[in-house]
Amino acid sequence: MDSASEKGNRRYVFEPTPAVSASRARTSYVSCPVCEERRAEYLFNRVGVRFVRCRGCGLVYVSPVGGAGPNYFDIARVAPFVTPKDRALCAADFARFLELLAEEFSRRGRALPKKSLSLGRFLPEFSESERARQFGLVVPKVDAANFSELALNGSLAFAEAELRAAPELVILHELLEACADPGRVLEQLAKALPPTTILVVTYSNVESLPARFLRRYWPAFFELKRAFYSTANLALLLGNFGFGLSAQFSYPAARSVGYVLERAGGVKAASFLARSPLEGLTLPLRTGHRVALFERRPALTSSREKLSIILPVFNEARYAAEVIEALLEKELALEKELIIVESNSTDGTREIVRRYENTPGVQVIYEDRPQGKGHAVKSGLRAASGSIILIQDADFEYDIEDYEALLEPILQRRTSFVLGSRSLGLDDWKVRRFSRDAFKGFLMNAAQVGFAHTFNFLYQQRTTDVNTMFKVFRRECLQGFELESNGFDLDIELVCKLVKNGHAPIEVPVNYVSRDFEEGKKISFVRDALPSYFAFFRYRFG
User: Fold this and answer.
1) What gap in Å lies between CA 138 and CA 119, rounded to an integer?
2) 256 within 8 A of 278, measured Cβ to Cβ
3) Is 445:429 a contact under the CB 8 Å cutoff?
4) Residue 448 CB neighbour total at 10 angstroms
5) To 10 degrees, what angle do helices 438-459 and 490-500 make?
């Protein structure tokens, strides 16, 4: 039995678990690496690593940051594979990714680059395929010291020689997700690379259907990451350094059954399979792993932001002059231009528009005949010179005093695409109220809700008003696709193609007072609403 003195001198020693040790190594809370907001909500904890989501841009990232941990990039040392076959499948996935990349170059009519550099996760097998040799692929290794500098400080010193060789293509293979300061990495690349170099980023899309379905189990399929991006906030991050999103596609993935079960928490089942005939069974996976291509954006003619307001006008003699005057008088914190597209009206609107032909900051486009709102908007887009585009109707259903709120998220680089929602705010059922036909207004409101739910389901978004006229976006968002529609369904086509191009919208509440059909409203259920609804499916699967 211990004496009283021995009991008084006894000290209890706490042996920290790996999770506690990892947590103690991370002491520096950081702003969002994409939008620099400090408004983050706690999500989950993995072995002492605290993940949060930015309330501004939606990035999921580690905060606080600290110790580098194992060399994430050396897949062979991290050894995430259940069987040797999984390693072979991983190498085969990379080879297939290069095949898809080659197909993208072919689709664009461009020759394969002769000098390519891959930075990020690697296996020696990655550079051994025939397609890798055709790309002239170089894969510099990252040792433990290099990894610490890269992960914590964003240093690319280990690849200086390869960057000096001016590669035509740089693949960031799951690299940005391992860096506490991805902006520092991109800053170095923007300075070191020629303007024609294409950046290819592979990443795990946190907004993908697998991520939403698997929820807390989804991160287990991706080892040791510091951040999980969506296409939208990844495009925002690259946009901060002069790169615009030009294409994207899914990264191929196949693994053994044991690998899938182990990541899903079925360790016992995985152990059993390792001793069974099913061990060699391979599954194609939809993990939400994506590929995004970025190219250097054309330099703006001016360093200042400029807003291009597209105003399609047809038979609006009652409102046209008043709307144009209001837009010209509207004071904004950035330069603006007004592009009026007049479609050969029959009520005197063209004569009203002619008054503004020589007004500074106004460009007037005359169409020979009315070919639809969509056709007029496309004409305006071709003439626009601003860095930001806003589409405005030639009436007062929407309030131009909402411009500042619509532009704020774009000017703050929190997003590249904003929708002005008529369904947000204090009055959430205010889309259409007709004094003469309340039932028709109810049906149109119900249809608007149905449109939003259909769009959200098909495109994995969370919008409330996809039909809104107020669509504001950066001009570069239009790269990579052509608009086809000439009617009101251009509103739907534009949103669908922007989202498919990786630009998820932020919604801002706006004021709205609908005019009745007797007051000049032109939309038709059969001619406009039905084609617009089916356009969701055409642009999703077409």
Assistant:
1) 9
2) no
3) yes
4) 20
5) 20
Question: From CA 332, how far away is CA 351, in angstroms rounded?
Answer: 28
> How many Cα neighbours within 13 Å face the side chain of 359?
19
Residue-wise pLDDT for 269-311, tens only, equals 555 655 566 666 888 888 889 999 999 877 654 457 899 999 9
Mean pLDDT of the chain: 83
Neighbours of 434 (CB within 10 A): 18
Residue 312 in contact with residue 343, Cβ under 8 Å?
Answer: yes
The torsion of the CA quartet 33, 36, 42, 48, rounded to 10 degrees, works out to 40
* Cα dihedral: 170, 173, 176, 178 (round 10): -140
Separation CA 353–CA 351 (nearest Å) = 5
pTM score, two decimals? Answer: 0.76
Per-residue burial over 3-29, b = 16 or more CB atoms within 10 Å of its CB, e = otherwise? eeeeeeeeeeeeeeeeeeebbeebeee
Contact call for residues 249 and 96 (beta carbons, < 8 A): no
CB-based contact 455:463 (threshold 8 Å) = yes
Residues 13/5, Cβ–Cβ less than 8 Å? no
Integer Cα distance of 309 and 473 in angstroms:
11
What is the per-residue pLDDT across 125-175, written as a single tens digit (0 to 9) for each? 999 999 999 999 999 888 888 888 888 888 999 999 999 999 999 999 999
Q: Tell me the per-residue pLDDT of 26-58, one tens digit each, with 9 for 90 and over.
A: 567 888 988 888 888 998 877 667 889 998 888
pLDDT at 519: 47
